[in-house]
Amino acid sequence: MKNTRFLRTILLALCTIWFGIEKADSQVRPNVVLILADDQGWGDLSINGNTHVRTPNIDRIGKEGAQFARFYVSPLCAPTRAGLLTGRYHYRAGVWGVSNSREFMNLDEVTLADLLKKDGYATGCFGKWHNGSQYPYHPNGRGFDEFYGMLSGHYANYFNTTVDHNGEPAKSTGYIADDLTTKAIDFIEKSEKANKAFLCYIPYNTPHSPFQVPDEYYNRVKARSIRQFSQNKSEEDEETTIAALAMTENIDDNVGRILQKLEDLNLANNTIVIYLSDNGPNSWRWNGDMKGRKGTAGEGSVRVPFLIRWPGVIPAGRVVNGNAAYIDLLPTLIDLTGIPMRRAGKPHDGISLQPALTEAAELPDRLLFLSINKNNSVRKGHYLYQNNALYDLAADPTQQHDIASRHPALTDSLRVAFDSWYRDVYKNIDSSRALPVGYSQFPKTVLPSQDAVLHKSPKGTLSYSASAPNSSWIANWSDTASYASWHVDVHTSGKYQVNVRYTSADAGDTFKLVLNRSQISGSIPEAFDPQLIPSPDRVKRTAESYEKEFRTLKVGEIRLEKGRGELKLLATDVKGGKFADIRAVELVLLK
Hints:
alpha+beta
């Protein structure tokens, strides 16, 4: 395998000298298809022993390539995504949550898409981004030529919904995972036709709630009945498990479509295909008897499937033991694609897994740190330190026995190591992220409700429409003392068109938008109060908003000066006891 790697590198160099990098790309450089599931547990795949689900296409990636025995990610999704794309712990990348701009990835980070694009690759992202909405946080500002999908998390509806396409709203067709796959396949075909190597990143937003899935998948999983259960069987809801596994089978069919397209285009042998999930399962269901689920303490929260295939380079059936993690993906792909390391940006926290994949080398012994929302852990070999407890995962994989008292020196050393690491990675976190406004290459900035700060008066009822702010709207606005605000950073001084996306049962509500010394007033000209869009949920939702149509009100033009400030939306007159529901404020830089 060393010879294979060496020959590829030499051939690429010769092609670059003789023909130029643009011609060398598709001939030598491998394509990359990176598939990321959302809230799918290690135990949700048949390759890992789940007898209630059928995932032959996903399993095939591991059987025809390699699978990792212990691959770790963050307990929550946006942090994992940031680490995958940068090779750095998510705190270093500026991501410390999943909403209210905590999920925004620092603009000085160099992403996998940045690197591959600079090296001549076509780059596309199709699915759930969740690392910043406004340009240049938008995927089109982070190295992706093409983006189609959702900018934030907790999406409201998975059928015929509204998504973002390169900064503009677009209507999806049919079930969301099917539609995302169709767009990804279109991108692959166009890249191949243009004779360009490509990075196709497909971060599905399933099986994340709400639990919606076409009948054919739900019915066939339900017909099998559930006989494997989680450690917390008393808290497991069978309908939720059925829906999540049905959504997984839908993903598997879509993975099969992608693999088939690579074969049809004769690209399979020169394409690295990777499959993983962003965190543990989002409900209590069978997960190999591991402790915990998404966002909680325990192995089940952070250990996920990681399968990788590159025919002729990665031997089929290889199982890589030892600990690997999400921060290792970018360094690994730098090695496999031959990107010059000098372009790789900031120092990486991860390591290249290439020696373990192609040469069967042992993974080095190191400390792996995982942390979010005080859910902290350190892994050293088969030892897990978590919340002042110590476990030996080799002898006790279900974490039944705290052995900290038997190994005080090891426990203390891991505690000290974690505290030192945390101080280092967290020291530069920006806890008051400003939303960028006014870039000529991306003139429309959408300030959605989820990025707003809600200032409720002592007697007011102002709130989001659901407990999860993403994909929600500002609701229950009962008085003029309450207001909403966005912390913004105006990049370009000039005139801006101001739009407000609203629904309202009454006409006549008046409002004012104020930013530093600039302000503009408006009123709701007519009632527009549509019904909620029917939601085909399999399980009653507990976090997400439902979906409804909003109308765009063109308020007028305002001059904004470069600099930071608090954009306030103030209700100046409330008709009918409740101000309009607000989905977003739009600021469009005018030429």
